[in-house]
């Protein structure tokens, strides 16, 4: 990943700098500051500040030919409102710079609160005192916090500009858990008075965060007074903003402020080169950390107990978002709960059905679109006198109803069911996996949209023991293939059974570099290329780790290993989709007598 650098500048001393201005400007600067707003940048003394300068601060970003003008304001969120809290440093570091870098890394737009970063998260832990507004903060404290903890998004940790004591609400475990995925690697101070170095960073599309003293001239920026270039009068204190461009013709830097869009020039303003060059400033660069590819974005605990039947995932109501479907035993009857997990937090039960007209015993359950209507149905496999029988519960978007029920003619023992679309017609077929005299056998039952019939049989030479198996369109042709992972001498062996539309045959064998132990396997298309990738889930010292493999269409390649902050015990893993987003996975686990659901989404495409 390209190293991203953010520069922060902070004025240390209010050294007066005089400059001649036109008569209209002289009249303007004599006015008292109007609509004075909250500040909050606390300044280091020069001795302490110089100790923070490191030699590698540019990370090779110098350029021989500087641009004459740069404007990257369109890559930032809109001007915000720090309101009554002295949180300008946190706005500059989190809302401004961090949002910019994560937009560049992830590619998401900065138009919603789940894509911009929270000044509340940073300021609640770096405020100087407990007075009204919190007393401001030091840039070094904010920078250290984002290195050590990261920062959460604004939807997860909201900010109230009207609450002068809002900083007293410190992050809860869920907010800290999300922040873990959005950290920086390190930071450094820059030498004071270095206009050229700031321009170098901006020319390389590396924004600058500026800290400076606020005099009346800055308070009164607006049409007719666009450039802050006069330190006459009395300073109200230090302030922090983001530099989002410069213009050599103006001899000034463009800034993004957080005093609403009604301040200055629609929330923006300009600060002259001369003010920076002729005063002692603090300046910092921060190095953004590559995000883990998968990160936790949802956490909820339901009132329902852990199911003895199992969990499946699918789009219950056809809205484009995957739900978690929870079949369970209710006094010997099959009952169904459906959890909507498309939101940012909390749980939303959208179906609570205690009667389906079927029993819950001897059940294997899969989710799929039996009739091709875009809503997820449930297919129940059960023991009908030693034979496999299938019952289809069709979704109407609000409940499930029995749509078909019949024996399939094959034995029930040693069974597992997989949802597949062997022929690519949009209707879910069923693969039955069973032990055929010590070898794995696979029966395929094709859906007509109103019933199932046996369409194919695939014998294999692999033992059914120590096997993980899942459906996947590994080459993007619209037909579901079957991926078998097995213990190949302690390594993860991979066999792909490719669909030709009417049956299956082996089309790929390989061995992955990671071990086989403690395996759960989840198919997902993490990069959106139409080919199914997969995540190998395993227990590393009690914590859930995720290993990602990408499909090239002819093999699987190892992408990376990503740690989570959740326990690996009692887990089941399911694929999930959200409308307009890349695929993710959901972790189901037992939380006391209740059920907990975590969702991990793609944070960083590689």
From TrEMBL:
Q: Which GO terms describe its molecular function?
A: cysteine-type peptidase activity
Q: Which Pfam families match?
A: FG-GAP_3, Peptidase_C1
Highest taxon listed in the record's lineage: Bacteria
Q: Which residues form the Peptidase C1A papain C-terminal domain?
A: 66-284
Q: Which GO terms describe its biological process?
A: proteolysis
What keywords were assigned to this record?
Signal
Query: What InterPro entries does the database record attribute to this sequence?
Result: FG-GAP (IPR013517), Integrin_alpha_N (IPR028994), Papain-like_cys_pep_sf (IPR038765), Pept_his_AS (IPR025660), Peptidase_C1A_C (IPR000668)
| PANTHER family (UniProt xref) | PROPROTEIN CONVERTASE P (PTHR44103:SF1)
Tell me the protein's name.
Peptidase C1A papain C-terminal domain-containing protein
Q: Which organism is it from?
A: Chitinophaga oryziterrae
Task: Give the source lineage, highest ranks first.
Answer: Bacteria, Pseudomonadati, Bacteroidota, Chitinophagia, Chitinophagales
């Amino acid at each position: 990943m390209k190293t991203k650098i953010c520069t922060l500048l902070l004025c240390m001393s209010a050294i007066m700098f005089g400059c001649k201005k036109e008569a209209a400007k002289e009249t303007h600067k004599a006015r008292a500051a109007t609509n004075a707003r909250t500040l909050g940048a606390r300044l280091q003394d020069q001795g302490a500040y110089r100790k923070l300068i490191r030699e590698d601060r540019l990370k090779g970003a110098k350029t021989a030919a500087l641009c004459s003008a740069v404007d990257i304001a369109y890559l930032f969120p809109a001007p915000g409102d720090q309101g009554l809290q002295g949180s300008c440093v946190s706005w500059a570091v989190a809302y401004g710079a961090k949002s910019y870098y994560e937009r560049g890394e992830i590619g998401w737009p900065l138009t919603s609160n789940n894509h911009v970063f929270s000044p509340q998260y940073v300021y609640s832990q770096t405020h100087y005192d407990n007075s009204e507004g919190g007393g401001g903060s030091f840039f070094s404290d904010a920078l250290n916090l984002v290195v050590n903890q990261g920062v959460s998004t604004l939807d997860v940790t909201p900010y109230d500009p009207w609450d002068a004591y809002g900083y007293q609400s410190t992050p809860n475990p869920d907010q800290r858990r999300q922040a873990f995925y959005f950290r920086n690697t390190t930071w450094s101070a820059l030498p004071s008075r270095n206009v050229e170095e700031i321009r170098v960073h901006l020319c390389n599309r590396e924004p600058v965060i500026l800290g400076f003293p606020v005099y009346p001239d800055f308070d009164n920026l607006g049409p007719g007074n666009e450039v802050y270039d006069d330190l006459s009068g009395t300073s109200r204190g230090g302030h922090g903003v983001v530099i989002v461009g410069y213009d050599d013709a103006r001899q000034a830097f463009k800034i993004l402020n957080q005093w609403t869009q009604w301040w200055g020039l629609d929330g923006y303003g300009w600060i002259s080169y001369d003010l920076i060059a002729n005063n002692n400033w603090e300046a910092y660069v921060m190095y953004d950390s590559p995000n883990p590819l998968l990160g936790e974005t949802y956490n909820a605990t339901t009132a329902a107990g852990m199911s003895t039947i199992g969990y499946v995932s699918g789009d219950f109501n056809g809205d484009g978002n995957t739900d978690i479907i929870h079949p369970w035993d209710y006094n010997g009857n099959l009952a169904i709960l459906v959890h909507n997990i498309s939101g940012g937090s909390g749980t939303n039960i959208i179906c609570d059905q205690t009667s389906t007209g079927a029993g819950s015993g001897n059940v294997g359950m899969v989710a799929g679109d039996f009739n091709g209507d875009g809503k997820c149905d449930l297919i129940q496999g059960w023991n009908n006198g030693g034979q496999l029988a299938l019952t289809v519960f069709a979704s109407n978007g609000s409940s499930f109803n029995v749509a078909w029920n019949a024996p399939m003619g094959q034995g029930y023992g040693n069974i597992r069911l997989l949802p597949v679309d062997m022929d690519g017609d949009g209707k879910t077929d069923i693969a039955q996996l069973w032990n055929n005299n010590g070898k794995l056998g696979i029966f395929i039952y094709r859906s007509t949209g109103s019933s199932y019939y046996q369409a194919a049989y695939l014998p294999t030479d692999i033992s059914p023991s120590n096997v993980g198996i899942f459906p996947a369109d590994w080459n993007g042709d619209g037909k579901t293939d079957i991926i078998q992972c097995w213990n190949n001498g302690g390594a993860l062996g991979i066999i792909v059974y490719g669909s030709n539309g009417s049956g299956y045959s082996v089309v790929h064998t390989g061995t992955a570099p990671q071990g086989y132990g403690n395996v759960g396997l989840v198919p997902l298309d993490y990069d959106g290329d139409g080919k199914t990738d997969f995540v190998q889930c395993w227990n590393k010292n009690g914590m859930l780790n995720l290993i990602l493999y990408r499909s090239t269409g002819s093999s699987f390649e190892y992408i990376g290993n990503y740690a989570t902050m959740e326990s690996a015990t009692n887990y089941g893993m399911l694929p999930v989709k959200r409308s307009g987003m890349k695929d993710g996975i959901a972790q189901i686990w037992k939380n006391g007598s209740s059920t907990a659901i975590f969702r991990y989404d793609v944070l960083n495409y590689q």
